[in-house]
Each structure stands twice: as C-alpha cells, then as structure tokens.
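Morning F.,

Quick status update on the modeling queue. The single chain you submitted on Monday has been processed. Sequence for confirmation:
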Amino acid sequence: MKTTKPFTLPAFDKHKLYAHISDCVSKAQDNTIGLVIDLFCGAGGTTEGIEQALDPDGNKAYVVIAGINHDMVSYRDWE
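Structure tokens below.
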C-alpha cells in the first residue's frame, strides 16, 4: 500500500472521516499492513513511531490514516 498523507480534521466532519477510512480500508484489503488512527495526535511522536514500525520480514507494518485531537495547537503540531 502506498503511504498517503493522513486525513486531518481541523473541524471534525465525521462523514469525511468515514469516507476516508473506507477508502483506505478498500485500498489495503490486498495487503497485511495495519491501518491506524492516531487519537490525541500532537507532537509526542506516536505517529512517527507507528510509521517506522516494521513487521518481522522488515516491511512497513502500519500506516497512520487519520489524526484527531480536540486541542488545535497539538493538532497543528501533528499536521
């Protein structure tokens, strides 16, 4: 699966989020890569760590497809 820029939610729109997740899931069905939504995203490095994680064969294990945070400062750091 080709990594795409995670979906960002400056103003939470659940319909756009659901559509984005559905699109990512349909593209990933042929792969064993894990799809992740980073809740409370910010500058903590969770997304970066997840994106760098490898499976036992050395392949990328996960891709972050969305980031959500109620705090706009943290959200903008993540963006």
